[in-house]
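Data deposition worksheet. Section B asks for the primary sequence of the deposited chain exactly as it was used as input, without tags or linkers unless they were present during the calculation. Section C holds the resulting structure in token form. Section D is free text for depositor observations; keep each observation to a single sentence. Incomplete worksheets are returned to the depositor.
Section A, Depositor: J.P.
Section B:
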Amino acid sequence: MKTLEKISDAFGKYMAVIVLVVAALSLFVPKSTLWIQTSWVNYLLMIVMFGMGLTLKLSDFKIVFTRPRDVLIGCLAQFTLMPILAFILGKLFGLDAALLAGVILVGTCPGGTSSNVITYLSDGDVALSVGMTAVNTLLAPFLTPAITYLLLRTTVHVDIVSMFLSIVKVVIIPIALGFIINRFWGKYTEKLVKVLPMVSVIAITLIVAAVVSHNAEKILSTGLIVFAVVILHNLLGYACGFGLGQILHLPLSRKKALSIEIGMQNSGLATSLAGTAFPDLAMATVPGAIFSVWHNISGAVLASILRRIK
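Section C:
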């Protein structure tokens, strides 16, 4: 068991390097990882979410409900900062209509479930992260179309039932199962928790490999400008989230959660919506695909940095 714990620590320590190497391999030699299917992504996230549930206690969730201000702050920031940043960057870099639509759609979508994983790996407030993701996703069917319309004057249909079931299946149920098992069989889960970083890193690496390899041609055919916009959008989201937490004097664990929740978007949803909302703008799906890759890489790097900050 001690050997596994050491291996797990090494995975956590070198997570950014592992993810970057696999991402590069998947981009330039996509055949090497095409065997990893994009349909696996949700299941991989569910495994990690279950592991996160094993680390949670009832007191973690009491904090969220007894101090809803933090969740409200995260929701307001999510649906104001990211759409505004997307619009400003798109205009500043002179993106064409298709790419601008794609970038703005990424900005108006809720935070992705990957943010919960990265928050966990960063030693952030996981309960707060899960709370913000759940609330943001429930608000998205109303706010995503409204904000997108305001910025693009285009109406985007969001399937509220599909989104609700997705967040329940991928986040709520696995975490709840892990939480229940930890609640009643905590003595047995203590040792298992020590190898969770390894499981999480492997899952994230497989997710990145799947997304990159299956979108390699589309990613490589895109100009450097859209890469710059996507990267800046993500990094500025992290910075704004952490800065907001600093201004509000939040505890460090909540600053980490807020930063990650705001910076990481549900880019899979953005990519899906772009294909249906803008059928005449084929390139509108590109920003979402690139963001899917980039925010997992940047999230891995950020987690490596934040976990060292105590």
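Section D:
The chain has a mean pLDDT of 85.
The radius of gyration is 18 Å.
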